[in-house]
Design goal:
CATH topology of the largest domain: Rossmann fold
Distance between the termini: 31 Å
Order of helices and strands: HHHEHEHEHHEHEHEHHEEH
Shape: globular
Strand content: 5-15%
């Protein structure tokens, strides 16, 4: 983001939140004293990051940070868990309690955190390969159990960190390092998969839809149970380049022109193709008891007066 654009956004935020007039804003203050509001959530000493120019993961982090600001979530209650892969590096760049776990094990690690300290807002932030391939079994069973987790899946449609191999989400006919003549195996439709497994909140946006993504993350924080947000994101180095889809700017134009907002669309109809339209929106928003509510109800019913509510843990996890 350029300095001029950043300053303009800050000016608009100040005018909206503080009811200031444009003339009352000191330009020197804007230029020298104010910083990007997202910076407070980043470990600046870890910069520069490892992501390629044009990668969309940083954009998703920006939307995540803005969701934290707008939701007024107590940061001491947030624990972020990532797996392995390009998106897995998010855990190392956010200035909050975070855990970079082993490949495919972000969800079981996060489940343990939530069960040990139910007051925590536990976020799983990982990629499509980590979550739906080696971690696929954990994904469907966490949704089935309705574990109270907020899962942000950055889907770049390929294994990016390891060389551009075909992933469970790679669309039909796409070229990858392991399918140089085109992918032919069916791909996962992740929103449909997690809805069928039992998720209570399911949405999809692209890295073009930054405000809608922030809003979706904020809604997931207010939801009790398993929430899943898929973010379609470019991998210009491996996916876009190999499939001759242009650079990241071309991809943003594609996301803008080919994305169709269909809130409430049947998830069975939102599968991805190589160059077709992308159905985005909030697909599922329903209520059912989460895992810990069902567990307490079952124990109370079975044990009667012998059942003792577990002691509440400290909210702070640092």
């Amino acid at each position: 983001m350029s300095a001029d654009l950043n300053t303009d956004l800050l000016r608009k935020d100040l005018l909206k939140k503080d009811s200031l007039s444009p003339d009352s804003l000191n330009e020197d203050l804007l230029d020298e004293d104010l910083v990007n509001p997202v910076e407070q959530f980043l470990r600046s000493d870890r910069m520069p990051h490892i992501w390629c120019p044009g990668c969309g993961i940083g954009t998703t982090v920006n939307s995540f940070a803005r969701a934290l600001i707008e939701s007024r979530i107590d940061l001491n209650s947030v624990a972020l868990v990532s797996g392995i892969g390009c998106t897995g590096r998010v855990a190392g760049y956010v200035a909050m309690d975070s855990f970079h776990t082993t490949h495919g094990r972000a969800i079981p690690f996060a489940t343990g955190l939530k069960l040990a300290n139910p007051k925590l807002n536990v976020v799983v932030y990982s990629g499509d390969g980590d979550l739906s391939a080696i971690g696929g079994n954990h994904l469907i069973h966490a949704a089935r159990r309705n574990i109270d987790l907020k899962v942000i899946c950055v889907n770049n449609l390929i294994y990016a960190m390891t060389g551009g191999q075909t992933a469970p989400t790679t669309p039909d006919h796409a070229t990858t390092s392991t399918n140089p003549y085109g992918t032919f195996e069916p791909s996962f439709n992740l929103p449909h998969l997690v809805e069928a497994a039992g998720a209570v909140y399911v949405a999809r946006w692209t890295t073009f839809h930054v405000r809608q993504l922030s809003r979706a993350i904020g809604e997931a924080f207010q939801k009790k149970g398993f929430s899943f947000i898929e973010v379609i994101s470019p991998c210009p180095t491996l996916y876009q380049r190999r499939n001759k889809l242009g650079d990241s700017l071309d991809t943003m134009k594609y996301y803008k022109s080919m994305s169709k907002v269909k809130n409430g669309a049947p998830t069975s109809e939102v599968g991805m193709t190589l160059s077709g339209e992308i159905i985005v929106g909030k697909f599922v928003d329903r209520d059912r008891p989460d895992y810990q509510s069902m567990m307490r109800a079952q124990y109370a019913d079975s044990l009667g007066e012998r059942f003792v509510e577990p002691m509440e843990a400290e909210t702070v996890c640092s």
